[in-house]
Specification:
The complex is a heterodimer of chains A (269) and B (284). With 269 residues, chain A is mainly alpha-helical. Chain A folds into two domains: 42 residues, no CATH class; 204 residues, MetI-like fold. Chain A is built from twelve helices and no strands. Chain B has a two-stranded antiparallel ribbon. By secondary structure, chain B is mainly α. Chain B is globular. Classes of the chains: A mainly alpha (269), B mainly alpha (284). At the A-B interface, helix 1, helix 3, helix 4, helix 5 and helix 6 of A face helix 1, helix 3, helix 4, helix 5 and helix 7 of B.
Chain lengths: 269, 284
């Protein structure tokens, strides 16, 4: 079926949209291409082809350590935020009262707050309390800003379930705890899986919070790169950027293959 | 019986399930934020970071100091410029995504979404590489003989606007496309059969109906821009000051916590105010 002429975008629209597509892709293409250049600065198209900037990256111990820190932080964040948000989503689903909307909005609030507000609030809170566990401090911050996604994703998963299944279990005499474990949770597996991967991606990507809350001994990768490019923008940064870009795409492809992107983003909510 | 009750177990289980998340939120979000807002009413002290007090000195200081007044002016201007640029660039693409040939839709959506996956620092670095004094664009232009000396595309407002527009664009396109996709095709066909020209159909039918998308997209981009500090810091090379950037300095370098807190509070009020206003305007 081809759309009617009346709804078809004009040639001018198509040209302008093409310009926007170029604008969106240009920085990504230049960074990925530039990471293979033989020159000491990034050029595009790259001069020749070399992997020396990737070798330089592999030899940089602090970058590798930061990569490991980021992985650990993101994994821990997924392990904490997913159960927290899931329990909250189950409670919200159960409670049909007027308090429900209010509670839900409260739980989603970190999405509305500019991250810098949460970051500064936590920074001064930790310092005044004399709290100096950098990893734990970062983890708490990351959990705060990712839990809302779990509440939304699992909430959508619960809303999409057929209530008749639960009713059937009830009429067969299953106890509450049994319904939760044997009926609801198995049905929620896709939503839980999506939450884990999505929270991992968000935490790995989070920069503002980390910039305020990290220290020299515990520095997630985005903060390490930020500190580095304040002084130098050599092609080694292009190589670490390329690695990060590929890593993000891999995770999203994994998400799509395992559960489907529609589901991961809370059914288009 | 409502199916919701099926997950019951009474009030007790509800509270049990809600307790952990509430505890985390109250202790690490509500309490620290309240503490910070309270601190904006304290006095600055060079020895103890802040001295307990109950004064509006930090706020009145901000409004009296021309540095802070122009800081807010610049930040709001930045927000407006980026919102405008993202609207102009995003609108045509959203039209194609929502109403163009179906076979392009998947690919275009992937292109629109892909920058969202890439870290802010990486994207800012990419723009530094493209726009820097010895960057790719200046290399090309000098190579072609168009310019003698490099154009100053970073270390100023222009570079910051370009990079922030790239960051806001996906959100703008998504907001626009979701509203445009819901516009009833038959309205456009009706306008055509009544003899309306293409331009008239666009401006009198399509554009007004897509306005809510433009509104929510603009709100998102504006709020994101006025609270941003990583991109302005990197692309501005320290020469473009934004409210969020100064907040970072107040808390990490100059350590004036009461003034920093007052700035955060104003930023928060600006964001929440705009969201409330937006809710009012587009509810109907």
């Amino acid at each position: 079926m081809s759309p009617r002429r009346s709804a078809q975008p004009s040639l001018l629209m198509q040209v302008m949209a093409g310009i926007t597509v170029l604008f969106l892709l240009a920085p990504l293409v230049v960074v990925i291409g530039g990471s293979f250049t033989t020159t000491d600065y990034v050029t595009f198209p790259p001069h020749g082809f070399t992997l020396r900037w990737y070798a330089a990256l592999a030899a940089k111990g602090d970058f590798i350590r930061s990569f490991a820190d980021s992985l650990l932080l993101a994994a821990a964040c997924a392990m904490v935020a997913t159960p927290l948000g899931t329990l909250a989503a189950l409670a919200l689903h159960r409670d049909a009262g007027r308090g429900r909307e209010w509670l839900r909005n409260f739980l989603l609030a970190p999405l509305l707050l500019p991250t810098i507000v949460t970051a500064v609030a936590l920074l001064q809170f930790y310092q005044r309390a004399g709290f100096d566990q950098i990893f734990l401090g970062l983890l708490i911050g990351h959990v705060l800003v990712t839990t809302p996604y779990v509440v939304r994703s699992v909430g959508a998963g619960l809303a999409g379930m057929d209530p008749a299944i639960v009713e059937a279990a009830q009429s067969l005499g299953a106890a509450e705890g049994r319904i939760l474990l044997r009926v609801l949770l198995p049905g929620l597996v896709p939503a839980l899986l999506a939450s884990v991967i999505f929270v991992f991606i968000m935490s790995f990507d989070e920069t503002t919070l980390s910039l305020f809350l990290s220290g020299p001994d515990m520095m997630p990768l985005p903060v390490r790169i930020y500190n580095y490019i304040e002084f130098a923008i050599d092609p080694m940064v292009a190589s670490v950027s390329t690695v990060l870009i590929l890593f993000a795409y891999l995770l999203v492809i994994l998400l799509e293959k395992l559960v489907g992107l529609d589901r991961a983003f809370g059914g288009g909510v | 019986m409502s199916p919701r009750l099926a997950v019951s177990g009474g009030r007790g289980r509800l509270i049990l399930f809600m307790a952990p998340v509430m505890l985390v939120y109250l202790l690490f979000l509500v309490l620290p934020t309240a503490q910070m807002l309270r601190m904006s009413l304290d006095r600055f002290s060079s020895l103890t970071l802040f001295a307990p007090d109950l004064t509006l000195a930090s706020y009145t200081g901000l409004f009296r100091d021309s540095f802070y007044v122009s800081l807010f002016g610049h930040t709001l201007l930045l927000g407006l410029l980026v919102t405008l640029a993202a609207s102009l660039l995003g609108y045509p693409l959203a039209v194609i995504v929502a109403r163009g040939p179906a076979r392009w839709r998947g690919l275009l959506m992937a292109i629109v979404l892909s920058p969202l996956l890439i870290n802010l620092v990486v994207r800012s670095y990419a723009w530094l590489v493209l726009l820097g004094d010895h960057g790719v664009l200046n290399q090309w232009l000098t190579g072609l003989g168009v310019i003698d000396r490099p154009l100053a595309l970073t270390g100023n407002m222009l570079g910051v606007v370009i990079a922030l527009t790239h960051i806001g664009l996906p959100l703008m396109v998504l907001s626009l496309a979701s509203v445009m996709g819901g516009i009833d095709e038959r309205l456009l066909e009706a306008a055509e059969s009544l003899g309306a020209s293409r331009a008239r159909r666009f401006w009198k039918v399509f554009f007004p109906m897509a306005l809510p998308g433009l509104g929510s997209g603009s709100l998102l981009v504006f709020c994101l821009t006025v609270s941003a500090f990583i991109t302005p810091q990197l692309l501005g090379g320290g020469r473009v000051q934004t409210v969020a950037g100064v907040v970072y300095q107040k808390f990490t370098l100059s350590l004036n916590w009461p003034v920093g807190s007052a700035l955060v509070f104003l930023l928060l009020v600006l964001n929440l105010g705009l969201m409330t206003l937006h809710g009012r305007v587009f509810r109907h």
